[in-house]
């Protein structure tokens, strides 16, 4: 059953990609197609990156309502970006090669995230404490971000600000090739770790008993998550609840927590929701910028729903 | 053979285990008994390298647990802890098949499937194989976890209070299944038990612990005497012998 549903999901993802490319195609077709292809590639990457990073993060923390962004990982990324603007100045920041910049940002995020989260993940903490810590982290980095924003001059601020809002309409196509390498690499690594992830979901003790080196595996997985968060945040900006929405949807669609099914299902759901939603908004409702808001709205509802359901059981 | 030598363990400044030395021969069922806080679970988790060894050393079949790669050790010893949480949306069969992870890193061969089927059958789970774990009762889930540890196919099986949540019928069935695994397959089962009469009925050897030390060690008929019970558990209770085995009437 899971396999058939996975196929259906793949078909849905393909369909939304085709719709995105072909609906309302007119004028200079080659030019429009190229533009749309680039955007499609970016959206697909974002969908895959957020979906996979959320599933892995939930498995490692043993917690269905945590996502990297709930734990403040994307706020950390934005803070890093602002710090670079602060240190280099707006002109210096802009004149950096975007790919070098991105590579540095990814690595900084990986180091900071593992430095912060690893002590917490060595042992699984209970959900309340993790959530609280995440909220505190998030607020801390957002405050540091706005502190720096107040310190820099307005022109520099404009440079930093364009990076700090989710915008599915103006994706950063200049980073596409580099980000694609990271995403594909991370996706391959996640796929290869699918059985380890199954065992990790049982918790540190059972996983150790089954021969998994908990500390090493969790470190590796967390680095993977940080890289994926950096990709999606760099391409479209921070999105809080999209990952939660996609992971919860995918798990209910394929009705299993086995990662061999769940990972592809989540990735395909991510693509379908993002690309399909974007198509719908571009051609159906006219104002495409609203997609981010709508996704966050439904994602937030899912978050609340899971919170309420979770507190009952 | 499990060889535990001069093992001490403290949690911050609180001593949990003090200078434990114990040798468990291959084959048979060994029950660890003792009051709450005796250090039974800690000892078991140290043997299964779930916690780092602070003092002393532990070897299983000559493999030092603190220096042997986890994968290799996972083919020798399996452990079931008291409070294993299982993610939802996993079937019983999937959970039990996780026990084969140390052998194929998640890829299941035909032989692995046969072993999983055998474990399901042995713990009376065949009918429940397709059910999701979260739809099971506490006792059924407990049996599924024991079956997972059993499916790991190790010579040594460490079980921390596996009778929790089990009714009389399944408690006895589980103990019989473990007894059979020891007698027929030559497994070594080390089991923490609270029901001392289960230990008497099914174990070859009882190790009684209190306050992080071993107080008594021997066959059930040597350990389960009114005097020893008073020393270990601090309660006086009559002991009756039924069918050659001592039973403690601690309810009286």
Task: List strands and helices in order, with pairings.
The complex is a heterodimer of chains A (313) and B (252).
Chain A: H1 2-22, H2 29-61, H3 73-95, H4 98-121, H5 127-151, H6 154-161, H7 176-192, H8 194-200, H9 204-209, H10 214-236, H11 242-254, H12 259-285, H13 291-312
Helix pairs in contact in A: 1-2, 1-12, 2-7, 2-10, 2-11, 2-12, 3-4, 3-5, 3-6, 3-10, 4-10, 7-10, 11-12, 11-13
Chain B: E1 2-11, E2 14-24, E3 28-33, H1 40-47, E4 55-60, E5 63-64, H2 70-74, E6 77-80, H3 92-98, H4 101-104, H5 110-122, H6 138-151, E7 156-160, H7 168-185, E8 188-192, H8 196-202, E9 205-210, E10 213-218, H9 220-223, H10 226-233, E11 239-242, E12 245-248
Parallel strand pairs in B: 3-8, 3-9, 6-7, 7-8
Antiparallel strand pairs in B: 1-2, 1-4, 4-5, 9-10, 11-12
Helix pairs in contact in B: 3-6, 5-6
Briefly summarize what is shown.
The complex is a heterodimer of chains A (313) and B (252). With 313 residues, chain A is mainly α.
Helix content of chain B: 25-40%
Overall 3D form of chain A: globular
Strand composition percent of chain A:
under 5%
Q: Order of helices and strands of chain A, N to C?
A: HHHHHHHHHHHHH
**Strands in their spatial order, largest beta sheet of chain B:** 6-7-8-3-9-10
The CATH architecture assignment of chain A turns out to be: Orthogonal Bundle
By DSSP, the count of extended strands of chain A is 0
Membrane topology (chain A): Multi-pass membrane protein
Keywords (chain A): Cell membrane, Membrane, Transmembrane, Transmembrane helix, Transport
GO molecular function (chain A): transmembrane transporter activity
Pfam families (chain A): FecCD (PF01032)
Structural notes for this entry:
The complex is a heterodimer of chains A (313) and B (252). Chain A is mainly α and 313 residues long. Chain A has one domain: ABC transporter involved in vitamin B12 uptake, BtuC, CATH 1.10.3470.10. Chain A is built from 13 helices and no strands. In chain A, helix 1 runs antiparallel to helix 2 (29-61), helix 3 packs across helix 10 and helix 11 crosses helix 13 (291-312). By secondary structure, chain B is α/β, with parallel strands linked by helices. Chain B has a domain at 84-153. Chain B is built from 10 helices and 12 strands. In chain B, the strands form 3 sheets. Chain B has a 6-stranded mixed beta sheet with strand order 6-7-8-3-9-10, sandwiched between helices. A 4-stranded antiparallel beta sheet of chain B has the order 2-1-4-5, covered by helices on one side. In chain B, strands 11-12 form a two-stranded antiparallel ribbon. In chain B, a hairpin with a 2-residue loop joins strand 4 and strand 5. The radius of gyration of chain B is 18 Å and the shape is globular. The model of chain B has no long low-confidence stretch (mean pLDDT 86). Classes of the chains: A mainly alpha (313), B alpha/beta (252). Chain A binds chain B through residues 59, 62, 194-196, 198-199, 201-206, 208-213, 251, 255-258, and chain B through 45, 48-50, 70-75, 78-81, 84-91, 94, 98-99, 101-102, 105-107, 149, 152.
């Amino acid at each position: 059953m899971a396999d058939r549903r996975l196929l259906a999901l793949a078909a849905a993802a393909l369909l939304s990609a085709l719709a995105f490319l072909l609906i309302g195609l007119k004028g200079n077709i080659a030019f429009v197609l190229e533009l749309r292809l680039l955007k499609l590639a970016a959206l697909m990457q974002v969908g895959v990156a957020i979906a996979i990073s959320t599933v892995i993060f939930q498995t490692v923390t043993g917690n269905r309502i945590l996502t990297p962004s709930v734990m403040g990982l994307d706020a950390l990324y934005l803070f890093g970006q602002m710090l670079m603007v602060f240190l280099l100045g707006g002109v210096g920041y802009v004149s950096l090669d975007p790919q070098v910049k991105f590579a540095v940002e990814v690595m900084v995020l990986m180091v900071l995230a593992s430095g912060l989260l690893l002590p917490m993940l060595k042992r699984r903490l209970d959900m309340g404490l993790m959530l609280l810590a995440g909220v505190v982290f998030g607020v801390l980095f957002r405050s540091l971000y706005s502190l720096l924003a107040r310190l820099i001059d307005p022109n520099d601020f404009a440079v930093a600000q364009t990076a700090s809002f989710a915008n599915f309409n103006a994706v950063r196509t200049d980073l596409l090739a580099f980000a694609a390498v990271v995403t594909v690499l991370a996706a391959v690594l996640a796929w290869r770790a699918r059985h380890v992830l199954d065992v990790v979901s049982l918790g540190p003790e059972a996983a150790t008993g089954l021969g998994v080196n908990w500390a090493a595996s969790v470190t590796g997985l967390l680095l993977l998550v940080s890289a994926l968060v950096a990709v999606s945040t760099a391409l479209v900006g921070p999105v809080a609840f999209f990952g939660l929405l996609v992971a919860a949807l995918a798990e209910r669609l394929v009705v299993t927590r086995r990662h061999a099914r769940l990972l592809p299902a989540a990735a395909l759901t991510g693509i379908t929701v993002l690309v399909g939603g974007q198509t719908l908004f571009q051609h159906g409702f006219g104002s495409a910028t609203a997609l981010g808001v709508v996704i966050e709205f439904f994602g937030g509802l899912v978050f609340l729903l899971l919170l309420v359901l979770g507190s009952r059981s | 053979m499990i060889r535990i030598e001069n093992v001490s363990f403290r949690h911050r400044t609180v001593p949990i285990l003090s200078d434990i030395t114990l040798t468990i021969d291959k084959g048979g069922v060994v029950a660890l008994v003792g009051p709450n806080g005796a250090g039974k679970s800690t000892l078991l988790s140290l043997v299964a390298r779930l916690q780092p060894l602070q003092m002393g050393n532990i070897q299983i079949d000559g493999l030092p647990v603190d220096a042997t790669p986890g994968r290799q050790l996972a083919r020798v010893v399996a452990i079931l802890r008291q409070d294993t949480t299982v993610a939802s949306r996993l079937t019983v069969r999937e959970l039990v098949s996780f026990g084969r992870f140390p052998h194929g890193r998640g890829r299941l061969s035909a032989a692995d499937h046969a072993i999983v089927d055998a474990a399901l059958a042995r713990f009376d789970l065949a009918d429940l194989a397709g059910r999701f774990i979260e739809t099971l009762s506490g006792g059924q889930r407990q049996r599924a976890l024991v079956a997972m540890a059993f499916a790991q196919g190790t010579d040594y099986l460490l079980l921390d209070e596996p009778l929790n949540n089990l009714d009389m019928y399944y408690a006895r069935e589980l103990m019989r299944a473990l007894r059979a695994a020891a007698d027929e397959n030559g497994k070594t089962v080390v089991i923490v038990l609270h029901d001392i009469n289960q230990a008497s009925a099914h174990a070859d050897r009882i190790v009684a612990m209190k306050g992080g030390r071993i107080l008594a060690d021997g066959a059930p008929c040597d350990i389960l005497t009114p005097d020893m019970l008073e020393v270990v558990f601090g309660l006086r209770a009559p002991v009756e012998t039924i069918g050659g085995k001592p039973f403690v009437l601690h309810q009286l």
